[in-house]
Amino acid sequence: MGIEVVVEGLTKSFGEQRIWQDVTLTLPAGEVSVMLGPSGTGKTVFLKSLIGLLKPEEGRVLIDGVDMVNSPERDIYETRKLFGLMFQDGALFGSMSLYDNIAFPLREHTRKKESEIRRIVMERIEVVGLLGAEGKLPGEISGGMRKRAGLARALVLDPQIILCDEPDSGLDPVRTAYLSQLLIDLNARIDATMLIVTHNLDIAATVPDNMGMLFRRELVTFGPREVLLTSEEPVVAQFLGGRREGPIGMSEEKDAATLAAEAAAPRSATERGPREIVPQLEPSPGLPERRAVTRRRQRVMNMIDQVPPAARSAILRTYATSDSAPTLPLPGTAGSGTW
Ligand SMILES: Nc1ncnc2c1ncn2[C@@H]1O[C@H](COP(=O)(O)OP(=O)(O)OP(=O)(O)O)[C@@H](O)[C@H]1O
């Protein structure tokens, strides 16, 4: 099972520039979470802080008892081996075949024999649907294939936490839909904790168990998907609705005059009515059910009294229509303010 990632009071600046402050959230073990936010709000910086590649000046990131911010470099290095990273461009070596790219972490970090490496690499290549392309160079394949190769490479060390930075960038809608399914299938196969940074509204609507959003140097919210998908928080509703009306402007923050003009506009110009929640993707036929589903149901039902009414109705509807009846909250297990 994947490992829980606990982030407490994280604050990061570069010189005078504050990127975000006091970010607190927990990525539940084995669940899929998405981090949203307009460009430049520090999502990539957040991912890099989780693995200890960037050092926030305040706060902690706890993984299996190791604080990725303040622990000795040796402990951080060891804990980093629990992660699989998929970067925007696949971050492949251009002069190596896909096979050698995917084998690279095994050759670099383990003493496995080539026969064992071959078995692992070919298995991961099959998982991401690249069988037959293993001899090609990254420059000879499409962007979508390069991303899948990057994902295969992220998987070879059996990660318990997978971080994907904009896995959909540059993909057409159909390839993005395949990628969404691949991410859910992957979670069903290996039960890893996953965090995906994306701007893509289809991925946000169909893939994650949980969602968060960074805006104006804060974590606006983080919680079960239903909380964000029904949120009336202006910045969340604007982002998920893909609208111009709202606090997000072309240069991240709109000026006060534009916001005031929008507020004075007739309601019909900004209102779109309640949003539909589309069902979350399920694993492809033949794959096991995601183990996170049962754990998540228990976790969410335990906090059901604390979520806003619209989200509560959506959660109860989801679980009422799924195979088994909703699990009732356990007495005395309601959590604190975080979802
Ligand atoms: N190593 C660094 N040194 C100085 N500033 C940095 C560094 N890395 C990132 N930044 C700054 O941090 C801010 C957030 O960058 P980041 O790439 O995390 O945003 P993002 O939300 O991932 O954006 P996008 O969605 O466009 O990829 C930017 O202003 C960027 O210039």
UniProtKB/TrEMBL annotation:
PROSITE patterns: ABC_TRANSPORTER_1 (PS00211), ABC_TRANSPORTER_2 (PS50893)
Pfam families with a match to the protein in the record: ABC_tran
Recorded GO MF terms: ATP binding; ATP hydrolysis activity
Family annotation (InterPro entries): AAA+_ATPase, ABC_transporter-like_ATP-bd, ABC_transporter-like_CS, P-loop_NTPase
Chain residue ranges for the region called Disordered: 258-289
Biased composition (Low complexity): 258-268
Gene3D superfamilies: P-loop containing nucleotide triphosphate hydrolases (3.40.50.300)
Keywords, comma-separated and alphabetical: ATP-binding, Nucleotide-binding, Transport
KW ATP-binding (keyword) present: yes
Keyword Nucleotide-binding belongs to the record: yes
Residue ranges of every copy of the ABC transporter domain listed in the record: 5-241
Protein name listed in UniProt: ABC transporter ATP-binding protein
Organism: Streptomyces ruber
